[in-house]
Amino acid sequence: xxxxxxxxxxxxxxxxxxxxxxxxxxxxxxxxxxxxxxxxxxxxxxxxxxxxxxxxxxxxxxxxxxxxxxxxxxxxxxxxxxxxxxxxxxxxxxxxxxxxxxxxxxxxxxxxxxxxxxxxxxxxxxxxxxxxxxxxxxxxxxxxxxxxxxxxxxxxxxxxxxxxxxxxxxxxxxxxxxxxxxxxxxxxxxxxxxxxxxxxxxxxxxxxxxxxxxxxxxxxxxxxxxxxxxxxxxxxxxxxxxxxxxxxxxxxxxxxxxxxxxxxxxxxxxxxxxxxxxxxxxxxxxxxxxxxxxxxxxxxxxxxxxxxxxxxxxxxxxxxxxx
Length: 323
Ligand code: ATP
Ligand code: FE2
What we know:
Layout lengths: L1 E6 L4 E7 L3 E8 L9 H20 L7 E9 L3 H18 L3 E5 H13 L5 E5 L4 E7 L2 E7 L5 H11 L7 H8 L11 E2 L2 E2 L2 H9 L4 H27 L3 E5 L6 H14 L2 E3 L3 H4 L3 H13 L31
Parallel strand pairs: 1-4, 4-5, 6-11, 11-12
Antiparallel strand pairs: 1-2, 2-3, 6-7, 7-8, 9-10
Helix pairs in contact: 1-2, 3-10, 4-6, 5-7, 7-8
The structure holds adenosine-5'-triphosphate and fe (ii) ion.
Fe (ii) ion (FE2) binds next to helix 3.
């Protein structure tokens, strides 16, 4: 059968159908008129385009082939999650098919594995709100290291906003960095964890030319991520690295990770742009795999979870590794 998946944890309302392959994918991103993303305004955006997004995803499709509705249950912004959850429950009831609550972080990993054809990678998940290094061990996606304060993307976006660059700042900072010589900025790795707010504050206060600060910000933040990824790779004894999350679109981050992998004899993977950031395809695909493994939720179990962690999910669809 086919699964209809809905993603809407933050800025992008996106729906997709996954059968044996991706059947359809349609997205309506929310761009804040000024400043960052306001949770209730983003949720209102999602509600107002829900019908359009779902209609576009199911257009021309045979609804009788849909055997489940998957939705992003968390982590994410509460109001956004609730809007998506309500739509998903209604659809599941209307079509009389099971409901699958998908962990957004796990979905980033699964679409990456599917698209890149890698098997058992160490994953650097670098997005707006999240920065984590994950790996599969004992039936769960374990978090080997993560940010102790803000996500790398939010750190870049907030710095960019302080310089009056439009949201999201990531792509603009990448462009400016190409013209700059990196300045030195605070580097914070504590054990396997990272922190970005000190780096962000120092970058905001720095008087060097903007291009040089952007270059320094990238070199510092990315080197931190690469260091933790490399240590996780060595520690877990794996030989693949997968980069996912919106910040993964950055060419310099990809280059630094690829270089580390070459030195270690590991293989480096990064999905296509449309599968890197938040998208409905990752929810539909993960929903399909989970339904096949029998991992559905009842309506009462379908409450959203803004703090949902990847290691809360028992991964029944993968063969257990480790002891
Ligand atoms: P999550 O809920 O997983 O945290 P998210 O809502 O942050 O996801 P994503 O699409 O995964 O959404 O990531 C968005 C982030 O990616 C933004 O912070 C944006 O600035 C950043 N980004 C996008 N392109 C680039 C780029 N080329 N370089 C650096 N950062 C980028
Ligand atoms: Fe995401």
